[in-house]
């Protein structure tokens, strides 16, 4: 097959990437691994790349972010190429659909509506437009369209936001905190008296209410947990470093020593 000059044209932009993807999937001359993939096998990579974008942003790793955004873009190109081969749609259809959506959802920018309103009001208007779009897609239930494949904590948050829009919500965070106490007590009771399936159910209820508290406090629970994970890693690595100064590894220590070092690490962070 003659080489398409687009492949090596660094100024060709998205057209170069589309041609590279097409070549990778060519059944005769492409990459065997890329050829055998389908939507289901690629989807986990798409999710992983989205999280790597979020991770780079959390760490303010701007040089890495460029590459991570490229990896995420490549996932869209990969899915669009498979869709083209199957006759579903093309990458250009994806671009057109997204462009049309943005124009229709921003009448205060691209239409006749006034921009003289707050960001909060624009969010309300955005949700109104999305609700009308869902109605056009015959999504009749208030919770329709919240993707099943989302991480469970994020999906809980989005389900609760949808329910709150139609008035199914506690009036303030104090009621959610009371519910957390109730669910915590039920979990303790289940732990002591009920089978594992019931313990799992009560634990899930508690997580669900915690996600709701985050919504009431203006905290996105998935992002909060990511930051908590990062903080735990940072502090535990500092504990390991302090142990190494004593010629030890964690398995050579005990909980009392590591807990004391953990407190020392927290103290050092507050001072810095």
Automatic annotation (TrEMBL):
Matching Pfam families: MazG (PF03819)
Gene Ontology MF annotations: nucleoside triphosphate diphosphatase activity
> In what residue span(s) does the NTP pyrophosphohydrolase MazG-like domain sit?
37-110, 177-237
Q: Keyword Hydrolase on this protein?
A: yes
- Assigned keywords, A-Z: Hydrolase
Q: Which domain of life is it from?
A: Bacteria
Give the EC number(s) under which this enzyme is classified.
3.6.1.9
What name does the UniProt record give this protein?
Nucleoside triphosphate pyrophosphohydrolase
